[in-house]
Design a protein that fits this description.
Layout lengths: L12 E2 L5 E2 L2 H8 L1 H8 L2 H9 L3 H27 L6 H14 L2 H11 L4 H6 L4 H15 L6 H27 L8 H22 L4 H24 L2
Helix pairs in contact: 2-11, 3-9, 4-5, 4-6, 4-8, 8-11, 9-10, 9-11
């Protein structure tokens, strides 16, 4: 089962009225619990975590994953461009995160070539419907919705990576007889990177106090959990 990505470092704090106020990170865990559990219980997710994928299917998975990774920084940059001085701490966090994510799409291409695929095929590949819906929603949220909603995308993708990337990589190694990180370097690196990122993200989320921003984060997380499961299901 999917383990909780973390718990607040401190308990509920009194608000101005003296009532206990739940930190937003904890509220996000609670409000997206159903979407998170739906992802973790999807048969295809359980299958891949336990048995990996056959080679042709894994190549297609990398090709579907590439647009999600490639669009991550453009989506985040679009959201940052709409943030004002009130959101300066969030902007600074996202600037740092974009810097860390730069070039990660190249890791995917290297893994694809390591398992017999070609980078040129990715650039000609038309993503599936679930992939296009996922990317399109995240762009819409950044361009037309609440820019803070980008944190929902970040939260969902980092939960998926920190909890499942390692299991996926191990199962793929066993099934495809891969040597070390060859062919699974993207998954292996994000399994460790995103565990650290989650602690940083928790602090940022607890600073989000606008109800409309919080709602946008919740909705974005729900969409990303749902559509990522559909992305994997479509890779057959």
């Amino acid at each position: 089962m999917l383990k909780s990505p973390g718990s607040p470092s401190s308990g509920p704090q009194p608000d101005a009225s003296g009532d206990l106020e739940t930190p937003f990170f904890q509220e996000l865990l609670q409000r997206t619990d159903e979407a998170r559990r739906a992802f973790e219980s999807a048969p295809v997710v359980l299958e891949v975590a336990a048995q990996g994928m056959e080679l042709t299917r894994y190549r297609r998975f990398l090709m579907e994953l590439h647009p999600v990774v490639w669009h991550f920084n453009p989506v985040t940059a679009a959201a940052v461009s709409r943030m004002g001085e009130r959101e300066a701490p969030l902007r600074d966090f996202l600037y740092r995160h974009m810097h860390e994510e730069a070039g990660h799409d190249e890791w995917l291409l290297q893994d694809l070539e390591a398992v017999g695929g070609r980078a040129a095929d990715v650039r000609r590949h038309v993503p599936g419907v679930a992939t296009r819906c996922l990317v399109a929603f995240n762009h819409w949220q950044a361009d037309r919705g609440r820019p803070a909603g980008v944190l929902g995308m970040l939260y969902a993708l980092e939960v998926i990576a920190s909890v499942y990337a390692g299991a996926f990589a191990a199962a793929l190694r066993d099934r495809l007889f891969l040597d070390g990180d060859r062919g699974v370097s993207f998954l292996v690196s994000h399994a460790s990177l995103d565990s650290r990122h989650m602690a940083e993200l928790r602090e940022v989320l607890d600073a989000v106090n606008d109800p409309q921003d919080q709602e946008a984060v919740v909705q974005s997380a729900e969409v990303n959990f749902s559509q990522f499961a559909r992305l994997i299901e479509a890779v057959t």
